[in-house]
Amino acid sequence: FLQVFLVEKAGRRSLFLAGLMGMLISAVAMTVGLVLLSQFAWMSYVSMVAIFLFVIFFEVGPGPIPWFIVAELFSQGPRPAAIAVAGFCNWACNFIVGMCFQYIADLCGPYVFVIFAALLLVFFLFAYFKVPETKGKSFEEIAAAFRRKKLPAKTMTELKTLRGSEEA
């Protein structure tokens, strides 16, 4: 409920990045807590706090924000299909993690969350370099930002030339 108000204040991209980084730090803290649990009994508290923080950061960023961004990145026509694909990917990944986690935990032991930390780092870097801020922008502004990033200057000149020849 609070996310609706928070996302309008802080922006989608910044909350998404903060959530990913918080989850990354929490995953590292869980790994440290599990590795050192046999040496220090109080590390169980570190692991518990890290789990709670992981969930909190998920609910601040990667939980709700992708739904905002997907809805804002697509125009009215392809939006339902994009949301369907995003939902399928979300549930498929949740299913895979749920079905495989125990086997991976048995294989990796206390280092199981290193895999999550590595993936979160990749997601953070991708979001930092590729995901635009969509707060307060129309679909046309977001699409124009993507066009400026993806098309090199030569292609833009060619498009202008083609448009000029169509008008003639």
TrEMBL record:
The alphabetized list of GO BP terms reads: D-glucose import; dehydroascorbic acid transport
GO CC list: brush border; plasma membrane
Give TM segment ranges: 15-36, 42-60, 81-105, 111-129
> Keyword set for this entry?
Membrane, Transmembrane, Transmembrane helix
What Gene3D superfamilies does the record point to?
MFS general substrate transporter like domains
Q: Where is the Major facilitator superfamily (MFS) profile domain?
A: 1-135
* Membrane topology listed for this record: Multi-pass membrane protein
GO molecular-function terms, A-Z: D-glucose transmembrane transporter activity
Q: Where in the cell is it found?
A: Membrane
Source domain of life is: Eukaryota
Query: InterPro entries recorded for this chain?
Result: GLUT (IPR045263), MFS_dom (IPR020846), MFS_sugar_transport-like (IPR005828), MFS_trans_sf (IPR036259), Sugar/inositol_transpt (IPR003663)
| Alphabetical list of PANTHER family matching this protein | SOLUTE CARRIER FAMILY 2, SOLUTE CARRIER FAMILY 2, FACILITATED GLUCOSE TRANSPORTER MEMBER 2
Name this polypeptide is given: GTR2 protein
